[in-house]
Amino acid sequence: MKKVVLAGGTGFVGQDFTVRFKKLGYDVLVISRQSGHIAWEDRTAIIEALEGAEMLINLAGKSVNCRYTDENRKIIMDSRTETTNILGEAVLACVHPPELWINSSTATIYRHAEDRPMTEQDGEIGSGFSVEVAKAWEQAFFGFKLPSTRQIALRIAIVLGEGGVMEPLTNLVRFGLGGAQGAGTQKFSWIHMEDLFRMVIFVQEHPELEGVYNASSPHPVTNRELMASLRKQMGARIGLPSPRWMLELGAIFIRTETELVLKSRWVIPDRIEKAGFTFTYASLDKALADLLKSK
């Protein structure tokens, strides 16, 4: 039976991928801190899971949707770099290692950009805590030299699917707060869950591909356009805006950071499109129409 290993596979993306891989006839093995799965501490079980697997996909990492306290900063960093190191050592210990290792990264690695889009070749790496995490994550991943395993890091934009960021966004619209957030000019780079999965299958089927790829729609929008599209799809006539001061105050109460909303992520999937990948959901309106059709 075909086998795929999902590290950190109990999260938002991992749960969705598990269902999709099973539909394709894969045996899906999950490494997780949750009970009922392979434990991160069980090195022998991880190696056994990886033996003969077609693919290893690492999605592990504490959510960044929290306050950046010293404790949380350490957990956010360690939950990415340490798990990546565990996996790299396990792959090296395999007799028949996975042919492909896809490691999550993040589109947040690029600087705040409202002047031009960021591609893999011409994008400028930013600064700050989130960027340092992304850089350390990729350095841990590419620090392994694996003779029999191809390595791809996906710099993933905001994933739109059943759950995840769609829940707070749609709730804002329902309660009449679906206007622009902050200036509203900040770019929102995103990808539909189905296209993210199709991208994984695409890179698996193209053995010449390796290195870093932006996993984002080719058509990012501004925050103002995002909220307008949501209101249109949900039939909401008005949406009150949320000025920056209100967001800063609200972030304290719900224990998160305004960077998640206010940073301008203008990311273009240049390399994957040049390789021949086409998006099912290239436009935000089409993506939202699909995700909200049952709401």
SSE topology sketch:
Elements: E1 3-7, H1 12-23, E2 27-31, H2 43-50, E3 55-58, H3 70-93, E4 100-106, H4 129-142, E5 150-156, E6 158-161, E7 163-164, H5 166-174, E8 187-188, E9 190-192, H6 193-205, E10 211-215, E11 221-222, H7 223-234, H8 244-253, H9 259-262, H10 270-274, H11 284-292
Parallel strand pairs: 1-2, 1-3, 3-4, 4-5, 5-10, 6-9
Antiparallel strand pairs: 6-7, 8-11
Distance between the termini: 37 Å
Shape field = globular
| Topology pattern, helix = H, strand = E | EHEHEHEHEEEHEEHEEHHHHH
Low-confidence stretches: none
The strand line-up of the biggest sheet is 2-1-3-4-5-10
- Specify the structural class: alpha/beta
What is the mean pLDDT?
95
Count of alpha/pi helices: 11
Determine the strand fraction and express it as a percent band. 15-25%
- The total beta strand count reads 11
Q: Radius of gyration from the CA trace?
A: 19 Å
Summarize the structure.
The protein is of the alpha/beta class and 295 residues long. It is 41% helix and 16% strand.
Question: What does this 3D model show about the protein?
Answer:
There is one protein chain. The chain is of the alpha/beta class. It is 41% helix and 16% strand. It contains 11 helices and 11 strands. It has helices at residues 12-23, 43-50, 70-93, 129-142, 166-174, 193-205, 223-234, 244-253, 259-262, 270-274, 284-292; strands spanning 3-7, 27-31, 55-58, 100-106, 150-156, 158-161, 163-164, 187-188, 190-192, 211-215, 221-222. The strands form 3 sheets. Strands 2-1-3-4-5-10 form a 6-stranded parallel sheet, with helices on both faces. Strands 7-6-9 form a 3-stranded mixed sheet. Helix 4 (129-142) links the parallel strand 4 (100-106) and strand 5 (150-156). The longest helix is centred in the N-terminal third of the chain and has 24 residues, at 70-93.
